[in-house]
Write a structure and sequence with these properties.
The mean pLDDT is 90. This protein has one domain. It has 6 helices and 3 strands; from the N terminus they run H-H-E-H-H-H-H-E-E. The protein is elongated. The protein has 143 residues and is mainly alpha-helical.
């Protein structure tokens, strides 16, 4: 650990490369705010891959279409079809959320400036597996 550091992140890792190595060796987990990840993906936030954004749009469209189709199926008493359509909507939404989180993690690990900005905004947190300690920016907000 480094002495008095400006950021909780700097207090645990001497460099971003050391942090990245620990992520690669699965010693730590990078936590992501799900709401932020979804909005970042749909809005095409900073460094969001266009292909991933397109896949996100398709998954959301599939989820919405499945829900609408479920309503239609229920109106015509096709209850088994309605259950399968609801299941499809659920799976599509879960895939979208997992895609968004995976892309946020990937971009954050490639770009240190973006990682630090998201960490300071409390969009990311870090779990050190060995100690069970969570590291996030818990500094008091300026008044």
């Amino acid at each position: 650990m480094v002495g008095q550091a400006e950021s909780p992140f700097d207090a645990h890792w001497e460099s971003f490369e050391a942090f990245r190595d620990e992520v690669r060796q699965h010693r730590i987990l990078l936590g992501v705010d799900r709401g932020f990840a979804r909005q970042w993906m749909l809005r095409g936030g900073a460094r969001c891959p266009r292909v991933a954004q397109l896949a996100a749009y398709l998954l959301v469209a599939l989820a919405v279409t499945s829900v609408a189709s479920t309503i239609y199926a229920v109106l015509y008493a096709a209850y088994l079809l309605a259950v399968f359509l609801l299941l499809s909507a659920y799976v599509s939404w879960r895939l979208f959320v997992h895609l968004a989180i995976a892309n946020v993690r990937s971009v954050a690990l490639r770009d240190e400036a973006l990682f630090r900005r998201w960490f300071d905004e409390r969009r990311l947190s870090v779990l050190i597996k060995a100690t069970g300690e969570y590291v996030w920016n818990d500094r008091a907000a300026p008044s």
